[in-house]
Structures are given as C-alpha cells and as structure tokens.
Amino acid sequence: MSQAEHSSEDRARFERDVIPQLGQLYPAALRMTRNPTDAEDLVQETSVKAYAAFQQFTPGTNLRAWLNRILTTTFINVYRKRRREPQQALGGDLQEWQMSADRLTPPVPSAEAEALDRTTDSDLLRALRDLPGEFRTAVYLADIEGYPYREIAEMMGTPVGTVMSRLHRGRKKIREQLVAGGLGVPRAESSGA
After folding, report:
1. For residues 109 and 96, what is the distance between their CA atoms, to the nearest angstrom?
2. Which of 55, 145, 148, 167 yields a CA-CA distance of 20 to 30 A from 88?
3. pLDDT at residue number 28
4. Euclidean distance between CA atoms 2 and 45, whole angstroms
5. pTM
6. 26-71, pLDDT tens digit by residue?
7. Cα angle 21-143-43, degrees, rounded to a multiple of 5
8. DSSP string covering the chain, please?
C-alpha cells in the first residue's frame, strides 16, 4: 500500500469515526475551560492533534477515551503555558473564610486553608505532573474536572475499581510530595509522638 493510499484511507476513517465524536468533546472542554470560545478552540486543537496522530490509534479500542486523553492533555499543556505568562491582578483574592458574615469576629482559617495558602499552584501542578501517567490522568479528571468515576473509567478504558485505586494512590503520592516539601499538613495518624 502506497503512502498516498494509506493517507486517504486514514482520512476517510478519521472522517467516519472521529468527526461524529467531536461534538461529544465540547461539554468536557466547556467544563475544563469554563468559556464557550475557549472550549471551541480546545475541541478544534484536539481534532487537529487527533488527526495528526490518527495512525497511532488502535482500531477496536475506545476511541472516545483516546480523544478525551488528547483533549485533557491539550488543556493541561495550554494551562501550563498560560501559567508561565504574566498575570494581571484582578482584585482581591479573598478566601471564603475571609468573608465571614460576622465582621466583628476575626475569621479563623482551618488547617486545610492554611496548608492551601502555603501551597502554590506550581507546587500542586509539579506534584501532579510528577505522578505516573495513569495516576495523573485519574486525579486530574476526578479532582480538577469533577468527572464521576464511571465516566473516568470509560475515558481511561479501565474498570471503576481501577480508577478508585489510582485516585487513592495518586492523591496519596501528591500528599506525600507536598508534606515532604514542607507544604502540606501531615495527617494526624502520621504525627503521633
């Protein structure tokens, strides 16, 4: 089979299999970006990357999960790029505990809020990025995107129990990395004397 025949065959298969799936990516992209225009751009970029990598897709496997992985990876890469760009201050970044209904009582932040204040986005992103791929994807889809376990299992092509295990182990690794870096609050059971 010549290269040209292979390309036209791939193009026809892409148009038949992938193009109908792109509409289903938009709701996920909208949840990620929280902006219709950015969501459209993200789906468009995902389709371009999917087309470029379509020869790597194994027919008979979960196409929707493959496309969602590309969508998620593209979003993460765009997010990382934007985090490196200079930010404009948008005003007071007040935490919920700082906006107490009783203005006379000074708010007391929880231990979790204090730990989060010490943890920068880059610390958390670094900890997430350092996870093995299967843990990183599960944690990102569950904790950042808010997908239910069942949908994550479909996207990743794994049983729900595997997703739950990867989430538990991934969160534990992130917590350990943040505590080791002096950023998190150790759990009560690990601070026994």
Report:
1. 9
2. 145
3. 87
4. 28
5. 0.45
6. 888 888 888 888 889 899 999 999 998 888 888 888 888 899 999 9
7. 25
8. --HHHHHHHHHHHHHHHTHHHHHHHHHHHHHHHSSHHHHHHHHHHHHHHHHHTGGGS-TTS-HHHHHHHHHHHHHHHHHHHHHHSPPPP-S----GGGS-S-TTSPP---HHHHHHHHS-HHHHHHHHHTS-HHHHHHHIIIIIS---HHHHHHHHTS-HHHHHHHHHHHHHHHHHHHHHTT-SPPPGGGG--
Residue whose C-alpha is closest to residue 65's, from 138, 147, 156: 156
pLDDT tens track for 114-138: 554 555 556 777 888 888 888 888 8
